[in-house]
Amino acid sequence: MDKEDARNQSLERLHERRKQVVRLHKRGIGIMQIVEMSGLSYPTVRRTVDLFEAGGWSAIKPAARGRSPGEGRRLTAEQEQTIRATLCDKRPEQLKMDFYLWSRAAVAELIRRDYGVEFSVRTVGKLLKRWGFTPQKPIKKAYEQRPEAVQRWLDEAYPSIEQRARAEGGEIHWGDET
Half-sphere exposure (CA, 13 Å, Cβ side) for 165? Predict the structure, then answer.
């Protein structure tokens, strides 16, 4: 019989298997026979029996695996809260940073500058996702734009700019502050 890998089993399933091993052992069945019957490895069966004999039924209950939530974080909860508030209340330019919008790189720079903790751009993306921020695409038209003023400028001011550029052999390039 192939041996089962307990790492792939749920904690409930693992606990049932351990209880099965103990029940078989209490009936007087030998360790090697339990190994053959259960499909578990010898060290697993031996450890389960030893745990039971040392501490009873509560000793064979498996503990939760892996890290507990929040373990190993490099920022405290207060620091995370302060960063989230900063992202909501301020723009990077207000903090004298070389960014116009909050990007992952801008947030990484903010964290490095304020707390001295270095994060990769990918890690900052995971932080932002955990904090509930989502990537946003800017809308095509500015909120402050007044279409009638734009049209008036195109009709009145732009023709003279265009004529001057032609006269001087220049080119006109369109851009914005970002």
Answer: 10
- How many C-beta atoms lie closer than 10 Å to residue 43's C-beta? 9
How far, in Å, are 18, 89, 103, 119, 150 from residue 77 at the CA level?
39, 18, 21, 16, 47
pLDDT tens by residue, the chain, 178 residues = 566 677 778 889 989 999 999 999 999 999 999 988 888 889 989 999 999 999 999 998 988 888 888 788 999 999 999 999 999 999 999 999 999 899 999 999 999 999 999 999 999 999 999 999 998 876 666 667 788 888 999 999 999 999 999 999 998 888 876 5
- The answer to whether the predicted template modeling score (pTM) of the entire model surpasses 0.90 is no
